[in-house]
Specification:
The chain is of the alpha/beta class. 38% of the residues lie in helices and 24% in strands. Strand 1, helix 2 and strand 2 form a beta-alpha-beta unit. It is elongated, with a radius of gyration of 18 Å.
Length: 259
């Protein structure tokens, strides 16, 4: 697998802060997803690409003393404190390291597939790790409709440079829009999905998260021709409570492996 563009090395505290903002946005949708699936006591769960571990913690609370959670990521430094009787933490590359076959009641991946070069293959690998009748649960963002109001040419140029840098770094910034179709291609049963989009003032959590992502991508963006003054103006706009920011659209989806 290519090096993860937003890896922690050299930016540990910054990435910890960025992941905390991401969890603040995504955790309510993940809770609703787990409620719809019915995750409960005794379940064996896989949390792939677990990041700082908020979904792992949610799962561990649900499965109780009779269940288990395997929490995997390329970098497990933020996950290691969660290891215990219910939670096993391991370093894992989804596209090269094997997973046990039909071992889990649930496989969960959040904000992971957009970073991978072979997304449908990654979904197949996750699904193969689920027992027949078990669940695959995913959620992914789509950055292709980001805007600010009032409109700003500097923001638009920065957004375009961000998309170019993301693609050059192995991201698909629009993968959330493709997620439902890829899951349909797996012939899942009971497939359900939600598409969530909203607008928020500058300075709120969604704007702060995107601002942090721009900082992490700044070097790549400048190398691809972005203007420093545009980046600075975009950061100003994202912190301005008088502007309205359209946050990335989120697709949350889940379905069963056929029996």
């Amino acid at each position: 697998m290519a090096q993860y563009t937003l890896g922690q090395h050299g930016a540990e505290e910054f990435e910890r802060t960025r992941l905390a903002l991401l969890e603040e946005i995504f955790d309510p949708y993940t809770v609703r997803q787990f409620d719809a699936i019915g995750v409960g006591a005794g379940w064996r769960c896989l949390d792939m690409g677990a990041g700082a571990g908020s979904a792992t913690r949610l799962l561990a609370a649900r499965v109780g003393d009779t269940g288990s959670v395997v929490s995997l990521d390329l970098d497990v430094r933020l996950l290691e404190p969660l290891a215990g009787d219910r939670v096993e933490v391991r370093r894992h590359d989804l596209l090269s390291d094997p997973l046990p076959e039909a071992a889990f009641d649930l496989a969960h991946a959040r904000n992971l597939l957009m970073h991978l070069p072979a997304r449908l293959d990654a979904l197949r690998r996750l699904l193969a790790a689920v027992r027949p009748g078990g669940w695959l649960a995913t959620s992914e963002p789509d950055f292709t409709a980001l805007t600010v109001t009032p409109p700003s040419a500097a923001f638009h140029r920065t957004w375009t440079a961000f998309c170019d840098a993301a693609i050059a770094g192995g991201w698909d910034p629009g993968y959330g829009g493709r997620l439902r179709g890829d899951l349909e291609a797996l012939d899942l049963e009971d497939l359900q999905s939600e598409v969530i989009t909203h607008f928020a003032p500058g300075g709120t959590v969604g704007a702060r998260l995107f601002a942090g992502s721009l900082v992490r991508f700044e070097e790549r963006m400048l190398a691809l021709g972005a203007r420093g003054e545009d980046l600075a103006e975009t950061q100003r706009l994202l912190g301005d409570p008088t502007i309205t920011f359209r946050v990335p659209t989120i697709t949350v989806a889940w379905g069963r492996r056929p029996m």
